[in-house]
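WARN no homologs supplied; continuing
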Amino acid sequence: NGIAESFRHGQRSGTVSKSIDPVSSAVFFVASLTGGRGLAKTSQNIDILVVCADHLIRYLETLRS
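OK structure emitted
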């Protein structure tokens, strides 16, 4: 809920595109982060988490207005 609210705040302030659905975007963000963390832990390879984080940053950049 906090991430969705951050997206809504960004939409109100004009920094996040109004075309995104804040809840769906937040779910995707959390699922990706959680999944990347789980994969990194299971494989005992921090590089997987780094790759996931890099791509999540790229995703967030696409949400800018």
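The CA atoms of residues 16 and 64 lie 4 Å apart.
OK
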